[in-house]
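Appendix B, record 7
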Amino acid sequence: DGERTESTFHKQNTVLRVAAMKFLYDLIRIPHSQPEKSTSEAERIKEPDTVPRQDEFVDEKAMLKQSKFPIKPDALIARTKEVLLAFKDIDNPSMEELFSDDFVMCAPFVGGATNATPDDPKPGLPKKNMLGALRGFKLLDAFPDMNNNYHAFRVDPFEPNRVWYQTRAFGTHTGTLMGKEATGRRLELPPQAYSMTFNEAGQVTFFNIGYVIDRTIGNTGGLGGAFGFFYGTGHPLPIPECHPYKPSWQFATLSWLRTKMEQLGKI
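Structure tokens (predicted):
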């Protein structure tokens, strides 16, 4: 009787463990294919000349036409380009006049913690700090042939005082960078999204910089902004944010567990 009881206990324990693992698998698994649709649903979707929901496609021209912001889109884009060209003379004291007194700059890892709720303080560096940092980096001295390849300028129809644009930056490290000698490396940074927000006087109030669109492109470890130049020349700052992304041990463990559960499901 004792042997039967122990055997029964082991069987029940095994069943419970398998059920628990199956439950956990269902919670974390990411399906690789969609379930088959019923015939009626498939037929409904395949109806000819089905018109997509038009409200999901923004009529940008119509929205911008209704804008009450005094600087029109073409002029605002031209103003953005003027500010970008002014950065080539970063040491010029008149640079400060381009930015409002309440100006802030925000980058993926610069400016403070992300506001987790709308009521939290928004991250950002004031213009004095931003200009001081850029003047200290002296990127144009380190990369005299730098070309940001600015493109895709457009005014945001939801924020008609904001201009978005993109970059595909290239540069050769032939000068000193933060005290480090030239390496001669030719850098290609990943595509990045930027934006400038203006007040009615044409001053920049918010500068959003260095948001990588595709981290698989280039040779700077998927990093944009100044961090990309530091890493690409072999001199990254001693912080995780200045190195290529790696999953946390928690995320890596979850991915490993998911794989094991998928393997278990095939047994």
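Remarks on this record: Residues 2-28 form the longest helix (27 residues). Helices lie at 2-28, 39-45, 60-65, 73-86, 127-137, 139-142, 225-232, 249-265.
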